[in-house]
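From the pipeline queue, job 12 of 40. The input is one protein chain; the requested action is below.

Action: predict structure.
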Amino acid sequence: MSRHPELAERDKRILGVLVHAYIDQGEPVSSLWLANRGFGVSSATLRNIMARLEEQGYVRQPHTSAGRVPTDLGYRLYVDQLLSERKSAKPTAQIEARLRRAGTVEDLLTHVSQEVSRASHQVGFAIAPDMTTFERLDFVPLAGGKLLVVMVAAGGHVTHKVIETTEEYEAGELQQAANYLNQEFRGKSLVEVRQAVIERLREERTLYDELMARALRLASTTFEGMDPAPTVFIQGTSLLLDDVGNEDPELTLTTLRTLLRMIEEKARLVQLLDDYLGTTGLTVVIGTEHHDADLQCFSLVASTYSDGHGTGAVGVIGPTRMRYSRAINAVDTLSKAISRMVSGTDM
């Protein structure tokens, strides 16, 4: 888990107290303030330690004569220490009782996003597993070498897509291709269908079955880019306004607008988070650890859950100066509760 140079134990403790104090108070932490925290060393020694921590990239000095504030690397060491020392969270009976009032999975995810936001005092989100299941498709020839694809998913959801082909198809061939694809892939998720098509196109036996090859080429073109819109439930954006109102030094109106814009574009937010949500279990991504520049003012705490078929996620996103312990406990607790409820017979 370690992503930072090894520090002496005393330096770790001092850095931990500094990070905790800055998260709590929002003010640069001075060596004089630390000297009164029972480390048993003089203020001068603490100044030297602070200077060393700054050289190593764990803290920075906002301006001359000010105390220090943690960098993203300082937050990372602090969070890694929290994760190594914490005990696994267990959902309380009260939380599960509130969640069980939900009548549908959508209601449950709405409640989860509310619970995780309330408990962490951050923007909370819950992402549903991909539940789009392929049922059947039909090909309808159009003019100019184009085909209209009509795809039906579970629940009767219909999607239309026009594709261009470099091959000519008779009506009977299109029907045969549709029959083959419907028989082979009915009941699979779109992600599974797309992956299976790619794998079969690589198989040697495809070379000897022209009908199969043509059907798979049509399927490859059909399912390319046909990703279902993510089902995302988000609560707590007003809490960001509270942080700006409280003059959080890490949260400016510019960064707030950036996050709110991403929240409005839910599909883009999920796309940006995909790299992290593919990992099983708890994930914490801090500031500049994000690949996308738009997220580098924020931290993410998220955990995956499974409904037995697909994977969803629960998490919070907020300023790097967040109460990580509270956020981690909230996310871990809610992800375990929802995983147990949606994978069993509770819903």
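Job complete. The two ends are 36 Å apart (CA to CA).
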